[in-house]
Amino acid sequence: MSEGFQQKFFDHVDKNQALYIERLAEAVGIPSISSDLENHLGDVNQMIDWTKAHIDRLGGKTNLVVNPLNSDKITYPPILLGEFHVDPKKKTVCVYGHLDVQPAEKDDGWDTEPFTLVEKDGKLYGRGSTDDKGPALSWLWIVEAHQALGVDLPLNIKIMYEGMEEYGSEGLFETIRDEGKPGQFLDDVDFFCISDNYWVGKTKPCLTYGLRGLAYFQVGVKGCEQDLHSGNHGGGIHEAMTDLVRLMATLVDTNGKILVDGVMDSVKPLTPEEEALYESIDFNVESYKEENGVKNVSDKLLYDNKKDLLMHRWRYPTLSIHGIEGAFSGKGAKTVIPAGVKGKFSLRLVPDQDPKQIEKCVKAHLETEFAKLQSPNKLEIELIHGAVAWLSDPKHPNYQAAARAVEKVYGCEPDYTREGGSIPITSAIEEATGMNVLLLPIGACDDMAHSQNEKYNISNMMNGIKVLGVYLHELGKIQG
Amino acid sequence: MSEGFQQKFFDHVDKNQALYIERLAEAVGIPSISSDLENHLGDVNQMIDWTKAHIDRLGGKTNLVVNPLNSDKITYPPILLGEFHVDPKKKTVCVYGHLDVQPAEKDDGWDTEPFTLVEKDGKLYGRGSTDDKGPALSWLWIVEAHQALGVDLPLNIKIMYEGMEEYGSEGLFETIRDEGKPGQFLDDVDFFCISDNYWVGKTKPCLTYGLRGLAYFQVGVKGCEQDLHSGNHGGGIHEAMTDLVRLMATLVDTNGKILVDGVMDSVKPLTPEEEALYESIDFNVESYKEENGVKNVSDKLLYDNKKDLLMHRWRYPTLSIHGIEGAFSGKGAKTVIPAGVKGKFSLRLVPDQDPKQIEKCVKAHLETEFAKLQSPNKLEIELIHGAVAWLSDPKHPNYQAAARAVEKVYGCEPDYTREGGSIPITSAIEEATGMNVLLLPIGACDDMAHSQNEKYNISNMMNGIKVLGVYLHELGKIQG
Ligand SMILES: [Zn+2]
Ligand SMILES: [Zn+2]
Ligand SMILES: [Zn+2]
Ligand SMILES: [Zn+2]
């Protein structure tokens, strides 16, 4: 982007702020809740059509891919593929976003109607404002700005928007696999960019280069075939809950240390280079305690300094115990001896941990511990979900292009961050295409995605459009 | 009961079998479900009125005591007090029963309509047939038989029937306390008899002289103020579930041994006399395994012989872990770090354990174990329900009268049994009046009270009426 065009582009974006807000209000007004297709399939489809109409209006090609998981029993929304083709000799970036949203009702504790965009103090409140309608739509306004200013796009843009992200991305993985085949939609893509995560702080942009994987286990203990009354049968039965609780107590200690042999063996060692990335990160330990409700309880985290805390949330594995299926879980008192119970726990995995290898370690551990109990009850261990961690390279040209764009808009280098959770689409794209994926978050850490009073700062929206626009031009400069 | 009258009474009862079945069918036809007063208050009231009408018809005095817990917000059914007064110089027995039932729907897995009494192979299927309409109504047919045969009742009979037993006996405890005061309804009662539990086996009658008490605990661990995502925050937080699971693992072992110091100190020692009561009990270990669904799982109980097994279900304390409130309890996978969790466990208490003393032991134990964890999280231990065990004396005249009645009907001595659960009304009556309470079960162990296909054997019904009738006359003989 030439200096001259950059200024014109920024001015154009600034002048259109009210229009961007109005359109985001239209989008937020469509309750495209994917977890409730029975009531909202029409809304999800409407949101996809609304977006398709904008791409069409801007002269893009569009294609609604019938969801590959559709059956006699269920219809899912299609996947929207769009394309702004400039020149076959130019490189191609593919941007991913989702048009569906989490459920929301005013009664959940919203201060305003969740599906009505409300502006207050520079913030736009509404479900989907930051996750992910606001960020996803940015690309359309960037294309529109180029057309208004009479400037060609610096490279080909492909768009992949889905409507099921908040409910498992049903059908997307199959679509990515199919479209990644030779000659298909994703085959000629050089770079991917996803804006569907958040800054680590409130003021400084970041680029996200790593995500943890997951190994989710279910450990079942069965003592009998029906729940029994503890008054009548306590003293007669080997109780399944006793065994399960004792087993789960051997997994991890109060300080988060994983007690399962072998799990830590394959964790990638820390390099000085990686460690250096943590120094500058915009993250405040005290705010973190406050935002997560720890301040008024123990006021203590597992680590009291930024670097250790972030590393243990991002680049070291953890083990969390989530709960128990089959036991009493209500308020008050119920005198039940549960017949069979299933403990749920999961490990967050990091490079180079392999879920299959972790499964072996966990099974061996639980079997050994169960043998020690000398219980006649039946044990069953199941890995119910496994996903490897994802790690990219901050020095990849895709990241460096984004870093330069951030500098031009914000006047500072971005932080290079990782996240503790997984974004399965990221690995799926990388596996299907072999191309680099950039996670470029636009929203701030306090945007409350998935929660009450979700919001999108107007400043983040405006700067986000600018960053993504400049990023395109930086990508356009990449040779070879 | 003279030999002559006894035979006439038995003959009369036998001739009226069809009538008793018809009336039980009427009663079962009224779905008096006390746990769902919103839909069934009218039915519970109708069932009480139906019973009152029979007492009135037989010349008894009746009184519907307005439920003392009624308020602007909720109306409970009244408590029905009835009286067949013979002679102020004669002794008085008060019989208790309940006219409400557990919920039931055909879809729950019933083979027949639950609120239609169906006779099959000598069994009467229907909700409430054995719990407790069948047994409770016996008294009315005994009074009716005396009138038909022109014979005076051998002592005064008072009746106390409630309509809330299956939902906490709301209002009954207050009523018992009030009516136990000098000059009130229960003040002149000499003996109490309750037929609302079951035989230990299928063929041999028993008298129940002991029940275990209860100390129900809730142990809460709080780590933060809101649930967190284990991907984002695993590695940052001292997780409450980790601590709770480790705490609960210290309570009891796989073999049911309670690991809380001091709990066993006050358990009443076993005397040879008490031990002897276990020899003859009609109880089969293999059937027990089968009925409780243990056979096809581990095929192992905590004790493999009748005496140890029964003693540990009846006269030794036990500790059961029931579940966790606040954790994930559904099917599948949810990656939550619960903010605060409450573990539920309870001890069944035996003479001479005091819930307050047990609370001290449990609190000391959990606090010590929690201190070992060195966790910054917040611990909260609460005794949410405490009740002492109840123990009567098989040699009390009230029991001996019943034993003689059983011998005259069944031709054998009854077993003297205890139960592992509590029947709070038992202690409440004893505390309010100081008089002996006899538990005289009529139904068999496989009657499936509270479950699908509840039934009442016709033979148990008929012999039950006879036993209770003879018991009255045996009571009438007691002097002083
Ligand atoms: Zn999202
Ligand atoms: Zn989301
Ligand atoms: Zn009952
Ligand atoms: Zn009952």
Summarize the structure.
The structure is a homodimer of 480-residue chains. Chain A has 480 residues and is an alpha+beta fold.
Kindly describe this structure.
By secondary structure, the first copy, chain A, is an alpha+beta fold. Chain A has two domains: 3-211 and 389-476, 3-Layer(aba) Sandwich (Aminopeptidase); 213-268 and 315-387, Alpha-Beta Plaits. Chain A has helices at 3-15, 17-28, 37-57, 129-149, 172-179, 230-233, 240-248, 272-276, 285-291, 306-314, 355-373, 397-410, 424-433, 458-476; strands at 61-65, 79-84, 92-98, 118-120, 123-125, 156-162, 191-194, 206-211, 213-222, 228-229, 318-325, 336-337, 340-349, 378-387, 390-391, 415-419, 436-439, 455-457. In chain A, helix 1 (3-15) packs across helix 4. The longest helix of chain A has 21 residues, at 37-57. Chain A is globular and about 85 Å long. The mean pLDDT of chain A is 96. One zinc ion (ZN) binds next to loops of chain B.
Please describe the topology of this protein.
Two copies of one chain form a homodimer.
Chain A lengths: L2 H13 L1 H12 L8 H21 L3 E5 L13 E6 L7 E7 L19 E3 L2 E3 L3 H21 L6 E7 L9 H8 L11 E4 L11 E6 L1 E10 L5 E2 H4 L6 H9 L23 H5 L8 H7 L14 H9 L3 E8 L10 E2 L2 E10 L5 H19 L4 E10 L2 E2 L5 H14 L4 E5 L4 H10 L2 E4 L15 E3 H19 L4
Parallel strand pairs in A: 3-6, 3-7, 7-17, 8-16
Antiparallel strand pairs in A: 1-2, 2-6, 4-5, 5-18, 8-15, 9-13, 9-14, 10-12, 11-13
Helix pairs in contact in A: 1-4, 1-14, 2-4, 4-14, 5-13, 12-14
The site of one zinc ion (ZN) has 5 residues of chain B, from helix 4.
